[in-house]
Amino acid sequence: VYAAVGSSLLIALCAATFFLYDYYVRGESEASAAVLETKRLFVRFISHEVRSPLNAVHLGLEALTAELRKFQDLVRGSHGDLLNLVDAAVLSWLELSAEMMNNSSAAEDVLDDLLNYDK
């Protein structure tokens, strides 16, 4: 008799434990589902507020990149012209310097001739 009552109490205790476990796990599951639904609603309503500025920034960066690429091509194309211009200026300056040196030596010869004219 005691064994039957003890085993009945043990079965009742196990059943009560399973019911309590199920109750608390279901409550946690429902709370988790509520949090997940809240996150989904937040993302759905706020994503527009986040995506619009990000799209504007992205489009602005694309326009800026295109403009910078245009300037980069312009600089690449004109650096040869600038190099030719600098080369021409340096050559012109060297020619002018050489001409000035020739003229100065010629002027020195003329001055020597004038000073030594009466000798």
UniProtKB/TrEMBL annotation:
Annotated Signal transduction histidine kinase dimerisation/phosphoacceptor domain residues: 38-97
Residues passing through the membrane, by range: 6-24
Key word Membrane present: yes
SUPFAM superfamilies assigned: Homodimeric domain of signal transducing histidine kinase (SSF47384)
Keywords recorded for this protein, A-Z: Membrane, Transmembrane, Transmembrane helix
InterPro entries registered for this protein in UniProt: HisK_dim/P_dom, HisK_dim/P_sf
Gene Ontology molecular-function annotations: phosphorelay sensor kinase activity
UniProt-listed CDD domains: HisKA
Protein name as catalogued: Signal transduction histidine kinase dimerisation/phosphoacceptor domain-containing protein
